[in-house]
Amino acid sequence: MRWIWFALFFFVGWKWTGIESKESCYYISFTYTNWTDAQPRFVVNMTFSNQSGIGSITTINEEIPMPVSRLLVLQIGGNQPRTIYNASTKLCELQSLFNSVPLFKPAKDNFLKQGNYSFSCPLPRGTYVMSNMRINPKNPLLSLLYQPKRSFIVRGGLFEELPSGRISPLSTYFMAGKVIKRSCGASD
């Protein structure tokens, strides 16, 4: 009789862990997006889609001697916002900064594969295209941002450091959304 209870317990436990062991994937759902640009010097056209990600075409009509990037990622919805990431750095130092943060390196690598953006100082004239920028649903950054009752804000932009030391905006962006958790499908 004991072996029946043991077998029943083992079978139910095995089935239960089988259900719980499904791998989770995380997806972004934007609730609000906005951007600005400093036309005619710096023209940005961005598209945001929950299905296909972010796309942009950026036209830089004159060289930017000292481009500066800013990025702020907040998690909101509790008593106080939680800062996930907050940095301001020269564009030419951004790639090494992302490489030093393991959560951001896969997103940065993906970003570079899906466009022709430059991390150089000065930032040369030209047209830069990014199509269908998506963060891999298995990226640990999304699992960190996932909280069922919270959402996130990403605020940042590209700025120019002037000879006087002042910072002038070239393009700013603001995105708000939620991270949705689902079981990974065959297409992930």
UniProtKB/TrEMBL annotation:
Native organism: Drosophila willistoni
Keywords: Signal
Secretion signal span: 1-21
Superkingdom: Eukaryota
Lineage of the organism: Eukaryota, Metazoa, Ecdysozoa, Arthropoda, Hexapoda
Pfam hit, one: DUF1091
Keyword Signal set for record: yes
Protein name: MD-2-related lipid-recognition domain-containing protein
InterPro entries, sorted: DUF1091 (IPR010512)
Keyword set includes Signal: yes
